[in-house]
Design goal:
Low-confidence stretches: none
Order of helices and strands: HEHHEHEHEEHEEEHHHEEHEEH
Number of helices: 11
Shape: globular
Number of strands: 12
Structural class: alpha/beta
Mean pLDDT: 97
Strand content: 5-15%
Helix content: 25-40%
Distance between the termini: 45 Å
Radius of gyration: 20 Å
Strand order of the largest sheet: 2-8-7-6-5-3-4
Bound molecules: pyridoxal-5'-phosphate
């Protein structure tokens, strides 16, 4: 608190990211990072690009990267916007497209950055309750709105929404932008990208932080109609001309081009996830169906906070949410390597036997 703060700063409730521990010997299953490193081709490119050219500004429009992303998704480069992580892309989306006279709608249990952006930009919003099975019921969104946003699969539940339901939502809300945040889509959820040419009100965001193991590089993007992309570019060019540095652009291109590595690591994460679900169910956990690189699970008798605390004592960190109350029995567990998962299962069985 300071007399020098502007009014808006006094009113902000900032997002609290999951812990990034300073000690090394932890099994870190709390922020949905990929347990496998980035493609070796990315590392080669980053080393090669660390050269004298760093004295020059990067391309302000990241044209090479946009055209690689466009080719990958079979779109045109003017349907692509890139930013410093999808969090930055989302921030621009909230400011450029979701600040309307009617409220923005999003699930009551979802990515907790959404209400934070609303606070920052003064956007009115309504939280729509997930149903009893923690699923998005699209009929609950049949109400006046200035836009809709949700992750697919949803976070932290991990539950995917089928594409035909997303299409119905797009048809019913032609006057508003529908944003599908596909941060985790590559781990077994169907993407809405193929609807983009049919629906000018659809914007899809993706990130290189999860399936491409580049959370430390900070690269996210949005795909949609050129008019939506232009709105984001106008905000970006009023904020930071060079959000993508030279290393990030080169590394991102190499990551997207190495399709084999991407496919192999995604398949491995999915296989480990499925095996972990079976082990947890055998230990009296209920696990929500996941289309992401994490699972949301609750135990029959031990509450979520106790579980997270006991795991932490054994050097394993998972994420526990204290709000809303409906999800306090759960813990969110990021899928690690097979060895990390085996350790998790063994520690859990000891904790539950105590
Ligand atoms: C649903 C969702 N969207 C977006 C992001 C932001 O990802 P990044 O800024 O690393 O691209 C996250 C990060 O965890 C997320 O969970």
């Amino acid at each position: 608190m300071s007399q020098y703060w502007s009014d808006i700063v006094h009113q902000l409730t900032p997002y609290v990211p999951g812990e990034q521990p300073k000690v090394q010997d932890l099994i870190k299953l709390n922020t949905n990072e990929n347990p496998y490193g980035p493609s070796p081709k990315v590392l080669e490119v980053l080393k090669a690009e660390a050269n004298d050219h760093l004295r020059l500004y990067p391309d302000p429009n990241s044209d090479r990267l946009k055209s690689v992303i466009a080719d990958y998704h079979q779109l045109n480069a003017n349907q692509v916007f890139v930013g410093n992580g999808s969090d930055e892309v989302l921030a621009h989306i909230f400011q450029a497209l979701l600040k309307q006279s009617r409220p923005l709608l999003f699930p009551d249990i979802t990515y907790s950055f959404y209400p934070v952006y609303c606070g920052l930009y003064g956007i009115e919003y309504e939280r729509i309750a997930l149903d009893r099975r923690f699923e998005i019921n699209i009929h609950d969104y049949d109400r006046p709105n200035g836009g809709i946003i949700f992750p697919n699969p949803n976070a932290p539940t991990g539950i995917p929404l089928e594409l035909d339901r997303i299409e119905t939502l797009l048809q019913k809300n032609r006057y508003a932008v529908v944003v599908v945040d596909e941060a985790y889509v590559d781990f077994g959820t169907e993407s809405a990208v193929r609807l983009i040419n049919q629906y000018p009100n659809l914007l899809v965001t993706q990130t290189l932080s999860k399936a491409r193991s580049l959370a430390g590089l900070r690269l996210g993007f949005a795909l949609g109609h050129p008019d939506l992309i232009e709105a984001l570019t106008r905000v970006k060019d009023s904020f930071n001309s060079y959000p993508i540095d030279r290393l990030a652009e080169a590394g991102a291109i190499a990551a997207i081009e190495d399709v084999d590595y991407f496919d192999a690591t995604c398949q491995q994460v999915i296989a480990t996830r499925d095996a972990l679900v079976r082990s947890l169910e055998a230990m009296a956990f209920t696990v929500l169906p996941s289309g992401g690189n994490f699972i949301f699970a609750k135990h029959a008798t031990m509450d979520g906070m106790t579980l997270a605390d006991k795991l932490r004592e054994q050097h394993i960190i998972v994420r526990h949410f204290t709000k809303p109350e409906r999800i306090t029995p759960f813990v969110r567990i990021t899928i690690g390597t097979d060895a990390q998962t085996a350790q998790l299962v063994s520690v859990l069985s000891n904790i539950l036997a105590e």
